[in-house]
């Protein structure tokens, strides 16, 4: 386990290459020591630039970067005690696994015995003991990644930075390596900052998920909170798994709004923290796809459930659930993830008219 505080604070962080366009635009974020933080967003949103600025490979145009309460802008990576694992792995093809992992210590002048002892301890952590004398070309993609991870971690950094570390792997190996990264992070006890554009990857492994768009943070927090309680339409749609519907407020009734749109009448949505909503406003709300159930039009539903009539457009079997795509509601797609055991008790077909329903308290008003 590395010594030292690996907490990170980004304060007013700005990066511009031309003095006009801000690739990173006023980012403020705190990452606790020992956390696993994932920056998530589409290409060009600024997440890799932030990673490189934390690492010390680029300087910010403005703002501060603190690691363990130490201002590190202007310091090189060694002084910051950060290490970076690159997407390409960048292993030396002529060096063995042991020599690749020990290489950073060789650069720092450590003796052969010292660096091989440290490398063997790290090799054991990443479960490559039997492959220590092999060359990178004799390893699988997952094994090469573990070598790259061990090489980045051997210097005992306070912060380990990972740039799209799983993008080159097939799906089965990605799942295995997600588990490996989580295990390594726990074993090493250091802060991991991981950049990805894959939503499932971020929410599967991160303590903190940071969703970015156009150089700004749209939402940051625990993975479950960001997935289950998206702040706005962008976050809800980007993370997936949510229906985002739009309509006009027809009435305010206590702590709820009655919202209507084409083919949707007086759907009740709790206002939550959005007390400024008024009659006539156009608003967005989200409902998780797995909270949407389907029933026949003649079925009797409790008053506590919202009900939207629709027609089945397509059906996809997904193994443990069935994805049922319905006609759009007010221009927004409506999708239900129905558990397969429930779906096949009374299966619907393409073209069937159904009622899509959900408990009213499951809907979430989104920020405008």
Write out key terms for the chains shown.
OB fold (Dihydrolipoamide Acetyltransferase, E2P), single chain, Rossmann fold, 2 domains, six-stranded mixed beta sheet, alpha+beta, five-stranded antiparallel beta sheet, about 375 residues
Q: Any overview of this molecule?
A:
There is one protein chain. By secondary structure, the protein is an alpha+beta fold. It has two domains: about 10-230, P-loop containing nucleotide triphosphate hydrolases (Rossmann fold, 3-Layer(aba) Sandwich), CATH 3.40.50.300; about 240-365, RNA polymerase II/Efflux pump adaptor protein, barrel-sandwich hybrid domain (OB fold (Dihydrolipoamide Acetyltransferase, E2P), Beta Barrel), CATH 2.40.50. It is built from ten helices and 20 strands. The strands form four sheets. The chain has a six-stranded mixed beta sheet with strand order 6-7-8-3-9-10, with helices on both faces. A five-stranded antiparallel beta sheet has the order 13-12-11-14-20. The two termini are about 45 Å apart. The model has no long low-confidence stretch (mean pLDDT about 90).
